Amino acid sequence: MKLSVIIPAYNEIDTIDTILKKIKNINISKEIIIIDDGSTDGTREYLERLKGSEIKVIFHEKNMGKSSAVRTGIKNASGEITIIQDADLEYDPEDYYELIKPILEGKYKVVYGTRFKIVNKMFNLSHKFFLANRILTLMANILYNAKITDEPTCYKVFDTKLLKSLNLKSKRFEFCPEVTAKVRKKGYEIYEVPIRYYPRSVEEGKKINWKDGIEAVWTLIKYRFVD
Which residue from 38, 123, 146, 174 has the fewest beta carbons nearer than 10 Å? Predict the structure, then answer.
């Protein structure tokens, strides 16, 4: 089975080359799909040079939001399994092997990587990000009986046919709550696999902020009542 690796990228010139090398080194049949979401820091120019390589590069002419980039990637995914990969270095592609295993074995169609089930000396979420994580995870468990420990994790893995069927509409950072809501409303269990995590600060380029947290909360509430 082939794995589609979807990488939304916006102004990640400092990390994009490193993360691509890490992904290429993973010994899994895969396709890499990068969606540049209107970068202005040199990322776009770097990706232009990859055209014609084994990597599929798609450009948004303007910044449309991370979730819009993810949705573009989903439309272009041809693998049987799809994973979301940030373009920074917070998440380690070495975890792919364990993340896709439950789907390969036919046990689950949705797998999340959780940052809360292993001891990791590198793990150090700041107070505000930790609090937002706990709120979103609690809401997902209450509203959708998700039974998960890490709702906003980047590493979300899906049976591609299921993912393409979800009619996703999010644009900015609402992909995580929307996809969580919709897979649970369809009755699919979310299986969690422990992953490594190396957080970066806002100063180092982290883009999500408190407004996005509020939008994520609203997304979880909204999709409890609408499709």
Answer: 123
pTM: 0.92
Nearest partner of 115 among 81, 148, 140, judged by Cα = 148
pLDDT at 122: 46
Euclidean distance between CA atoms 154 and 162, whole angstroms: 18
Q: Which residues pair with 157 in a beta bridge?
A: 83, 111
CA quadruple 145, 148, 153, 154: dihedral sign: negative
Of 46, 61, 138, 123, nearest to 91 by C-alpha is 123
The three-state secondary structure class of 34 is strand
Q: Give SS3 for 33.
A: strand
Q: Domains along the chain?
A: 3-225 (3.90.550.10)
The pLDDT assigned to 208 comes to 67
DSSP string, 166-214: S-----SS-HHHHHHHHHHHTTPPPEEEE--B----TTTT----HHHHH
Question: What distance in Å separates the CA atoms of residue 35 and residue 190, rounded to the nearest whole number?
Answer: 26
As to burial, measured by CB atoms within 10 angstroms (0-12 exposed, 13-18 middle, 19+ buried), residue 101 is middle
